[in-house]
User: Which sequence fits this backbone?
């Protein structure tokens, strides 16, 4: 029989624990700045209009059924996903250098990539993965679960509240040759700080010199700048520079398909004559890993995204919806910064508008985060990250006053 007391109590997940605490709070003024999920100006989840249209199209299809998808998922979805992140005219696609599988959203893609690397990447030599410090909390446990050792590279400068570029590049340069470097493609979580294109070129050069292996985690394409190509620039640049790399692609935020778990994993091999057979072998091994874990991925979210991605009019409507979301977040950044400056809240607040994407790294200490929660029923993660979409025209002043109160 199973000796249950060998199972220790695990700590509560910081993010989902915060969500639960927010739901329990009955104060009408409560503000949810925790989970990285978009909210409209009434603090409500937003079903993208284009997603509603795609849903109606699917429901009107008399042949729609609930059969298994292939292990690699819906081909129309994975093909469209390649084009979205790599660019429709990507040489990697033309030369058939990309193995793609539909995954359980971004988390599933990060996991599948980590599992594959754990099994096949430099198994007979020292290998270490590097995450930005700070990074998305789940990165650590996903890599730990597949027994890949990891370290971190400096990323956020508390002084400038911007990128610690020197620290990042030096650590990547000093890392053992062939290390796995996990990079946020755009809209860095939790800091909202992205390298400039010039800085990306520097980072790329150092990684080439050290023969490092890039693993791009792309959960916010279109969400950062509102421009899909711009947000994919770093990924496409690295591929143009000839890297072999992994990409985890999430449709949770940019399609609002959080709970439908729509995502894609891509392995891009470097240009070589036998690239096509290499990709076939890699795809076959990825399929075995996928089959043993989820067998095949969920159909609904991929069908919604695929319907939109493969239709010119719907794609254009989706881009308009992306601009609505990213635009509203940028408005909230401006509103919050100007309110804090108007209040004369101690400190500088330009980082609120300098940062990009879903999150802002406010600089509030853990004590201040706990105080603003008990004082004002404002919920944010202990590292001081706020999900900007939780702000709206009805609560941004209230939040600014709450910050002012704990900062003074
Ligand atoms: C960088 C990054 N990568 C992957 C994911 C996974 O998303 P998925 O739903 O599996 O496609 C998230 C989600 N981040 C938000 C939610 C979460 O923690 O799961 C967040 O940081 O709030 C990321 O921020």
Assistant:
């Amino acid at each position: 029989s199973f000796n249950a007391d060998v199972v220790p109590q695990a700590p509560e997940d910081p993010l989902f624990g915060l969500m639960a605490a927010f739901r329990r709070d009955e104060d009408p003024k409560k503000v949810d700045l925790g989970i990285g999920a978009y909210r409209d100006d009434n603090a409500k989840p937003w079903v993208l209009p284009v997603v509603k249209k795609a849903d109606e199209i699917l429901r009107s299809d008399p042949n729609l059924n609930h059969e298994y998808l292939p292990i690699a998922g819906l081909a129309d979805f994975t093909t469209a996903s390649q084009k979205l992140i790599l660019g429709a005219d990507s040489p990697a696609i033309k030369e058939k250098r990309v193995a793609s599988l539909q995954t359980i959203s971004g988390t599933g893609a990060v996991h599948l990539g980590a599992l594959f690397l754990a099994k096949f990447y430099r198994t007979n030599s020292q290998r270490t993965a590097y995450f930005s410090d700070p990074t998305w909390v789940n990165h650590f446990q996903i890599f730990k679960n597949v027994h890949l050792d990891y370290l971190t590279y400096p990323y956020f400068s508390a002084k400038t509240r911007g990128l610690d570029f020197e620290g990042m590049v030096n650590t990547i340069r000093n890392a053992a040759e062939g290390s796995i470097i996990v990079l946020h493609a755009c809209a860095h979580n939790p800091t909202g700080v992205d390298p400039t294109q010039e800085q990306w070129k520097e980072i790329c050069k150092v990684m080439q010199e050290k023969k490092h292996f890039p693993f791009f985690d792309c959960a916010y394409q279109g969400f950062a700048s509102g421009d899909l190509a711009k947000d994919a620039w770093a990924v496409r640049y690295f591929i143009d520079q000839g890297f072999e790399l992994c990409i985890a692609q999430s449709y949770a935020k940019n399609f609002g398909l959080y709970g439908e778990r729509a995502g894609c994993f891509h392995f891009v091999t470097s240009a070589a004559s036998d690239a096509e057979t290499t990709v076939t072998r890699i795809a076959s091994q990825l399929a075995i890993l996928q089959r043993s874990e989820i067998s095949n991925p969920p159909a609904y979210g991929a069908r919604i995204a695929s319907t939109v991605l493969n239709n010119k009019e719907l794609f254009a409507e989706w881009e308009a919806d992306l601009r609505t979301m990213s635009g509203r977040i940028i408005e909230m950044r401006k509103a919050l910064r100007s309110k804090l400056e108007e209040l004369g809240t101690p400190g500088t607040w330009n980082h609120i508008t300098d940062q990009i994407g879903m999150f802002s790294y406010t600089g509030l200490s853990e004590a201040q985060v706990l105080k603003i929660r008990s004082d004002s029923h404002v919920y944010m993660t202990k590292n001081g990250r706020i999900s900007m979409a939780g702000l709206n025209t009805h609560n941004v002043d209230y939040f600014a006053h709450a910050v002012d109160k704990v900062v003074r």
Q: What stands out?
A: The chain has a mean pLDDT of 96.
